[in-house]
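Hey, I'm writing a tutorial for new members on how sequence and structure tokens pair up, and I'd like a real worked example in the thread rather than a made-up one. If someone can provide the structure for the chain below, I'll link this post from the tutorial.
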Amino acid sequence: MDKVPITGGGFAALEEELKRRQQVDRPNIIEAIAEARSHGDLSENAEYHAAKENQSLNEGRIMELESMIARAEIIDVAKLTGDKVKFGATVKLVDEDTEEEKSYQIVGEPEADVRSGRLSIGSPIARALIGKGVGDTVEVTTPGGGKSYEIVAVAFR
């Protein structure tokens, strides 16, 4: 069983989602199934089939969350230091073509969300950044083509 690196905040979010799915969503789904059952013939009961599908999806996600939590290796980013990019680093980049500044934190797979500035440690950009420092330039091949970024800041917070 491989350990999965994750920040403290990411771990807390996984635990919160698991708790919600077990204590709120699961009882609501069971209630919806019971309500749909009371409508009679199950073979042509769309509400029943939708509730059962919702139950299946919820239970699958619960199992997935339990697995991620069991394999999580929590890394306290506040205790990390250095001038090289590694897990947990918040990196400020400048796109060398557009001069646009972007800031990303390198996080674990389960908590990655590009729109909120969290890149998975396994993403092409994060892999290119690991081990580099301020002033270094990285070339990244993305689905949209090649990109070139200059690292202007590395912080751990």
